[in-house]
Amino acid sequence: MQLGFVSAILPELSLEEVARFAASEGFDCIEVMCWPKGKAERRYAGVTHVDVVGFGPGEAQKVRETMESAGVAISGLGYYPNALSADAEEAAVAVEHIRKVILAAEQLGLDRVNTFIGRDPKQSVKEIWPRFLEVWRPLIQFAQDHGVRIGIENCPMYFTGDEWPSGKNLAHSPRIWRKMFEDIPNPNFGLNYDPSHFIWQRMDYLKPIAEFADRIFHAHAKDAKIDVDRLNDVGILATPLEYHTPKLPGRGEVDWKQYVAALAAAGYDGPVCIEVEDRDFEGSLETRKQSLRESGAFLRQYIPK
């Protein structure tokens, strides 16, 4: 496996600066964020380390030279919008930009793009399913036509009352993945597996790894801590941030030795990228860099260089 990090936590740095930092700290790879340029709509979004708009051979060559000079690989390109938004314009922009990210990955010689399925949170799984198929069947085929695999992260995107009751990402549970892959069996359709989202949903984060072994294209390393007293007070119908906190690997409830062992047993030998969303480390660029150093040191117990 290759240890890396998600570039979203270093938004003020250029791709060259991010790559140099990764190299200096001994990371193997970076998941590079490719949001459209503009104001971020939520935390950790809106980061553009590769601008895929108007991306051509010249831009691809510059990115390749930047990464080769640092000696660090790109694990995949990342863009996490809501392609099934109830706002038709928002959804259309998301789908079109996903296509641009796919084309940029192809030009860079990469075979991974990571994203969300999206969802109208007011609709049930049954209600949203026809639209899911209408949007994602052609997107996955487009990806396959360009030699790119799509890894869907399993975050429900349910954190506030605005996302009630179902969240903004359909692909949050093994039952839904099973149906997704039955209805879109394309081998280029898979997962960007993140154990932290299982923690706050009170689900087993190890068991699905074996079942979906051939669908895990990329993996995140983020932890989560449950405040049991708070959960006992507010209950599971509260919004999740009322009783759980995203943490650095090793500061939450994921058993990282078991997690990495389960990935290895399933035959996974790809990137494991640290995703920092720990508010304790958000105060400055230096504390965010330190969060990556700490996380890297911790995970190298289980993912040696």
Can you describe this structure?
The longest helix has 21 residues, at 125-145. This protein has 305 residues and is α/β, with parallel strands linked by helices. The termini are close together. The chain has helices at 15-24, 57-70, 88-107, 125-145, 174-183, 196-200, 207-211, 228-234, 256-265, 285-299, and strands spanning 2-6, 29-33, 73-78, 112-115, 149-153, 189-193, 216-221, 223-226, 244-247, 271-274. 38% of the residues lie in helices and 16% in strands. The relative contact order is 0.14. The strands form two sheets. Strands 1-2-3-4-5-6-7-10 form an eight-stranded parallel β-barrel, surrounded by four helices. A two-stranded antiparallel sheet has the order 8-9. The protein has ten helices and ten strands. The protein is globular, with a radius of gyration of 18 Å. β2, α2 and β3 (73-78) form a beta-alpha-beta unit.
Defining traits:
305 residues, alpha/beta, 8-stranded parallel beta barrel, two-stranded antiparallel ribbon, globular
